[in-house]
Write a structure and sequence with these properties.
CATH topology of one domain in chain B: Dimethylsulfoxide Reductase, domain 2
Radius of gyration of chain B: 29 Å
Strand order of the largest sheet of chain B: 14-13-26-25-24-15-16
Strand content of chain B: 15-25%
Helix content of chain B: 25-40%
Structural class of chain B: alpha/beta
Largest sheet of chain A: 3 strands, antiparallel
Shape of chain B: globular
CATH topology of the largest domain in chain A: Alpha-Beta Plaits
CATH superfamily of one domain in chain B: Dimethylsulfoxide Reductase, domain 2
Strand content of chain A: 15-25%
Largest interface: A-B, 16 and 16 residues
Structural class of chain A: alpha+beta
CATH architecture of one domain in chain B: 3-Layer(aba) Sandwich
Number of strands of chain A: 5
Strand order of the largest sheet of chain A: 2-3-5
Order of helices and strands of chain A: HHEHEEHEEH
CATH architecture of the largest domain in chain A: 2-Layer Sandwich
Helix content of chain A: 25-40%
Number of helices of chain B: 31
CATH class of one domain in chain B: Alpha Beta
Oligomer: heterodimer
Number of strands of chain B: 36
Number of domains of chain A: 2
CATH class of the largest domain in chain A: Alpha Beta
Radius of gyration of chain A: 25 Å
Distance between the termini of chain A: 84 Å
Shape of chain A: elongated
Chain lengths: 156, 871
């Protein structure tokens, strides 16, 4: 019987709409739920896994030694490393070519874990959408540039 | 067989087997570091400690041999602790620079520590630091990383027999280095030490920091340098060949390689490679498309066939091509063009040995294997510097000699293998035939011949006796410099052999009367009974990897595929049936005849694959002139050669790393090669080029892949076998005295008074053919050719090491750098044939063998003087 009345009087629907109405009259700033994204940004926790970057040592030289462990560990196979010996010092190993295909990256951070020289790091950048896919296939110079900004090295 | 218990598992193993091997057989892993299956037990690292019941302490499994009722435990807390301790001990000095170390990813120590170690070291004192040694052209030494397993020292001694590496100083100060000190290895550069090093202490400069092992693709294939046919794997990444690796139990080489195989791979990615077809327009070669290039070739060939007949076209192919390439080329020449004018690089001498063997043993493939060499009890090595020309065959000889086989070495110079020889006979250059006849004479006259053979072939031996009677030991000694006693001793040793093996090389096959000398050696085999019993062999060495295949596939005017006789109508019939087209009956021309034909205007067009006559023939010779006289020259090669410059069309071919197919090594073993990378540039595998050309010539030979060709080859060879073989030896021993006398003819060459030195050109260890010159490794070790000269001769001429000498004869003069070595006898000079400049070859003249028409240009008489540089 109660069910019958509930059905013909749209009780459930009215109850639902009341909740909407409640939120409609709620004042902004008091119990805010919506963040107006492009103007406002959520504070990110420490350890947030955003865009990858390459870091430099304090003397300005690259940290990366081209060991290719990041490439080996990467679950989505988005890192490509070609290592080589430095021309002036044949015993110095470095990455001749380093590329992260951000379109494939799943931001798991395994590569950062794998890196034995702390050359790879994760920034808190996450706005990565681009019109051209190629612009987020990032080569070494671009990754270093990001690293320079987000992990500044001490200039003597 | 003994029964023992390992970890409560009953294991049956042959008596005397090492415990590590027995455990491995049972599927139980015992960690090892200094142990290697190829090497003798050493027990240096003590990682393989196991508990054996009734023994007081833990025992090393890699030095303990199994015995009955042994009870072994390999896993227990006690053993785990011991392993952990040993690993920590190894790590006290080992730097943890794995991210930089080139061995990372395939490092045995890394794997062991990961599995059994603690990854932590208590040792906090300063550690001894070694300087990193990068002075050697190929091998970097980083002794910080060395774990003193001495595998490198042991492989150098036990497997390679070079004993160049040694460990000096003691205890933890032990260092590994060349025996003579210094930082340059200056050895055979086989690279075994680099391959066997479990850590990154010895690394290859060529591969340094190029890639990690998990990044590369591995393709099993066959070496393309010499006739040994060693198996190895190419490691490639993105179309680049990065290095060569081997598995120790695989192939004829059993994991060993020589310097050319190990370090001579980078010609594949050389920047100088031809990448597009070229055609000559206004005396300049310009790139074009495949379609246009093949159109031009087909058009010109068709026109020449129309005007001058098919026999105005000839083809020469190199012995570096695969069987499929060679087979298709001779099919193309014989059917699409319609001529038998086809020859291969085997004509430079190998054909002598093969024709002789075919005549005596028959059309069946001769069965001499490198295993026979390794297991022989007497080895007679004649006129070959085997460790340099065919290093892996040399390794087998070394192995046999070390095992206790009698090794008799006869060569014109003191060779490296001679240090293992029981008899080292240095014969005078040009007297090889006297020496061989001396052996035959000694066997017959001293009654060393096989008694059973004497019963069967009495007449033949009597005939031989008649012939060698005229030759006295005194004359032999005068000519060869070998005393009667030595010759008799050698002949006795060889004839008493149960497993006698004769090895002969370029000194026989690539010299005047090479065919007859080969027959003489076969006679020696027959009369001593060393011809067809198991374990006996006669093995001609070949220096291009597929010369055997070139002859077997029929790239010779006298042979059809499967060594069938091109002159016999019956044999042609067999192949024609399979091919569905008649093979031209007209006798084809051999290489020297082709060049003569060009001079006479009979040959108008020449199709050269992989050969470089303009760069290898002496410039003063008629053959060199002939190349300029051609109406139409097509060149198909990997690199732009001197011949390509004369060519009207140049086609880029693919190297062995870019195609599928098979190579047949000098044992007659056909082995598969596999494409490791895509063809470089626009190049194509040779067989595809022939296929495309044949279509335009109006006789399409269409194959899906190299396997399809191989199937057809198998069909053809099967067809040959159905012919039925008569017993060739039975026929051969019926040879009349008159013919035998011709075979035993000796021609003396006299040095003209004006030119007293004999100059020989030959192969050297670090280079073979022309490809090694485009590879970084061999070039780094030996960048230029040096004339080898005896110290006494050098003294007399006032030449010191590093000087330049002026070689002169009627054909011209050349300046070359000199290397003084007492390996050369007086009056003899040696220059590596690989090097094009300075053009020492120009001093030689071309000799043509009367029997097989082989052409030789490996020796000359010259005068030498010191070259005084102008100031």
């Amino acid at each position: 019987m109660i069910k019958f009345f509930k059905t013909i009087l749209f009780i459930d629907i009215i109850m639902g709409l009341l909740l909407t109405l409640k939120h409609f009259f709620m004042f902004k700033g008091k119990r805010e739920i919506t963040i107006e994204y492009p103007d406002e940004k959520k504070p990110l926790p420490d350890g947030y896994r955003g865009l990858l970057c390459l870091r430099r040592k304090d003397d300005g030289s690259e940290r990366c030694v081209g060991c290719t462990l990041c490439e080996a560990y990467c679950p989505s196979k988005c890192i490509t490393v070609v290592s080589a010996g430095a021309e002036n010092d044949p015993m110095k190993r470095y990455a001749k070519f380093y590329q992260i295909d951000i379109t494939k990256c799943v931001f798991c951070g395994y590569c950062v874990d794998a890196c034995p020289v702390e050359a790879l790091a994760m920034t808190k950048r996450y706005e990565l959408s681009q019109y051209e896919k190629e612009t987020i296939v990032m080569a070494k110079d671009k990754l270093l540039e990001i690293g320079d900004v987000d992990y500044p090295w001490r200039k003597d | 067989m003994v029964k023992l218990t390992i970890n409560n598992k009953i294991v049956e193993a042959p008596d005397g087997m090492l415990l590590t091997e027995a455990a491995k057989m049972a599927g139980i892993e015992i960690p090892t570091l200094c142990y290697h299956p190829e090497l003798q037990p050493y027990g240096g690292c003590r990682l393989c400690l196991v508990r054996i019941e009734k023994m007081p302490k833990l025992q090393t499994a890699c030095t303990t041999r199994v015995c009955d009722n042994m009870v072994v435990t390999t896993e227990s807390p006690e053993i785990a602790k011991a392993r952990k301790g040993m690993l920590e001990f190894v790590l006290t000095y080992h730097p943890l620079d794995c991210p930089i170390c080139d061995k990372g990813g395939e490092c045995e120590l890394q794997n062991l520590v990961f599995k059994f170690g603690s990854g932590f070291r208590r040792y906090a004192e300063d550690i001894e630091e070694y300087t990193i040694d990068t002075n050697d052209p190929l091998i970097d030494r980083e002794l910080d990383r060395c774990v003193r397993c001495l595998r490198c020292v042991r492989v150098c001694d036990e497997v390679q027999g070079v004993t160049n590496l040694t460990a000096y100083n003691r205890g933890s100060h032990t260092e590994i280095g060349p025996f003579m000190g210094g930082s340059i290895f200056d050895c055979e550069y086989c690279g075994s030490c680099v391959a066997i090093c479990p850590v990154g202490a010895l690394t290859s400069k060529l591969f340094k920091y190029k890639a990690r092992p998990w990044q590369t693709k591995r393709t099993d294939t066959i070496c393309t340098y010499c006739g040994c046919g060693c198996q190895f794997a190419l490691e490639t990444r993105d179309g680049d060949v990065l290095r060569v690796v081997t598995d120790y139990e695989k192939g004829v080489n059993e994991g060993s390689l020589c310097t050319r195989g190990r370090f001579g791979y980078s010609f594949v990615n050389n920047k100088k490679r031809l990448t597009a077809p070229l055609i000559k327009t206004n005396t300049k070669l310009e790139p074009t498309s495949w379609d246009e290039a093949t159109d031009i070739i087909a058009d010109r060939f068709k026109k020449i066939i129309e005007n001058n007949g098919p026999d105005a076209i000839a083809g020469i192919i190199t012995g570096h091509c695969t069987n499929e390439d060679i087979y298709l080329f001779q099919k193309f020449m014989r059917l699409a063009i319609g001529t038998n004018n086809i020859d291969s690089a085997a004509r430079f001498g190998y054909v002598n040995a093969m024709s002789a063997i075919k005549q005596v043993i028959g059309s069946k493939r001769f069965e001499a294997s490198l295993d026979d060499v390794a297991n022989a009890d007497v080895i007679l090595s004649i006129s070959t510097n085997i460790t340099e020309v065919n290093p892996i065959a040399g390794l087998k000889v070394r192995r046999a000699a070390k095992r206790g086989a009698v090794l008799i070495v006869a060569d014109v110079q003191d060779t490296d293998i001679a240090k293992f020889a029981s008899q080292n006979l240095i014969i005078k250059s040009g007297s090889e035939r006297w020496f061989i006849h001396g052996l035959v004479k000694a066997v017959i006259e001293k009654g060393f011949y096989d008694k059973k053979i004497y019963k069967d072939y009495k007449k033949f031996i009597d005939n031989l006796e008649n012939i060698v009677k005229g030759l006295s030991f005194k004359e032999i000694e005068e000519k060869t410099g070998i005393s009667e006693k030595d010759i008799i001793e050698a002949a006795k040793a060889y004839s008493k052999a149960k497993k006698g093996v004769i090895i002969f090389g370029q000194g026989i096959t690539h010299q005047q009367d090479g065919y007859k000398s080969s027959l003489n050696l076969l006679d020696l085999c027959i009369i001593t009974g060393n011809i067809d019993s198991k374990g006996t062999a006669i093995l001609p060495l070949c220096d291009e990897n597929n010369e055997y295949g070139a002859l077997e596939m029929g790239a010779a005017p006298e042979f059809l595929s499967g060594f069938l006789n091109a002159g016999a109508a019956k044999d042609r019939e067999i192949i024609s049936k399979i091919w569905d087209k008649k093979i031209p009956a007209k006798k084809g021309l051999t290489m020297p005849e082709i060049f003569n034909g060009i001079l006479k205007g009979k040959i108008k067009a020449l199709y050269i694959i992989g050969e470089n006559p303009a760069g290898t023939f002496p410039q003063k010779s008629e053959f060199y002139e002939a190349l300029q006289k051609l109406d139409f020259l097509v060149c198909q090669d990997l690199f732009p050669t001197a011949t390509c410059e004369l060519a009207d069309v140049v086609l880029p071919a693919s190297s062995f790393a870019e195609k599928d197919g098979t190579f047949t090594n000098m044992e007659g073993r056909a082995q598969k090669i596999e494409a490791a990378i895509n063809p470089v540039g626009d190049s194509r595998p040779d067989w595809q080029i022939f296929s495309a050309l044949s279509e335009k010539m109006g006789y399409p030979m269409d194959y899906d892949n190299a396997d399809a060709i191989l199937k057809e080859i198998a069909q053809v060879i099967e067809g040959c076998n159905s012919k039925g073989e008569g017993s060739a030896i039975e026929n051969y021993v019926k040879t009349s005295v008159k013919e035998l006398r011709a075979i035993y003819e000796r021609k003396e060459e006299k040095a003209p008074a004006k030119f007293p030195f004999k100059l020989m050109l030959g192969p050297v260890l670090f280079h073979s053919g022309k490809l090694s010159g485009y590879s970084e490794g061999p070039v780094r070790i030996l960048p230029e050719g040096r004339l080898k000269i005896n110290p006494n001769d050098a003294d007399r001429l006032g030449i010191i090491e590093g000087d330049k000498a002026l070689l002169k004869n009627a054909n011209g003069e050349v300046k070359v750098k000199v290397e003084i070595t007492d390996r050369m006898p007086e009056g003899l000079l040696f220059y590596p044939e690989h090097f094009m400049y300075p053009a020492v070859r120009n001093l030689c003249k071309i000799d043509i063998d009367k029997d097989t028409k082989a052409n030789y240009f490996k020796s000359a008489f010259v005068a030498v003087e010191r070259h005084v540089p102008e100031h």
